[in-house]
Write a structure and sequence with these properties.
The structure is a single chain. The chain is mainly α. The protein has a single domain, classed as SP0561-like (Orthogonal Bundle). 51% of the residues lie in helices and 0% in strands. The longest helix has 17 residues, at 55-71. The protein is globular.
Length: 72
């Protein structure tokens, strides 16, 4: 099993900067907060909870997507 690279305790902008391919998944889940001031200090879990999104599901989707891309 691949190691999860993105975790819910990561800062939103940290995750996006380290893994730019995660932007599409954030947006699919309804998180379009990259220009939001809160994205500068909130972690993924905090941002998800503020938007009613399951942080574990979001992180899993990002990591699954990156694993699938790496396997291509």
């Amino acid at each position: 099993m691949a190691e999860n690279k993105v975790t819910k305790d990561m800062g939103i902008l940290d995750a996006v900067q380290q893994y730019p391919e995660s932007v599409d998944i954030f947006q699919q889940f309804g998180m379009h907060c990259f220009g939001c001031m809160a994205a500068h200090f909130e972690n993924i879990e905090q941002g998800c909870l503020a938007h009613g999104i399951d942080p574990d599901a979001l992180c899993q989707a990002i990591n699954d997507s990156m694993a699938a891309d790496a396997a291509k």
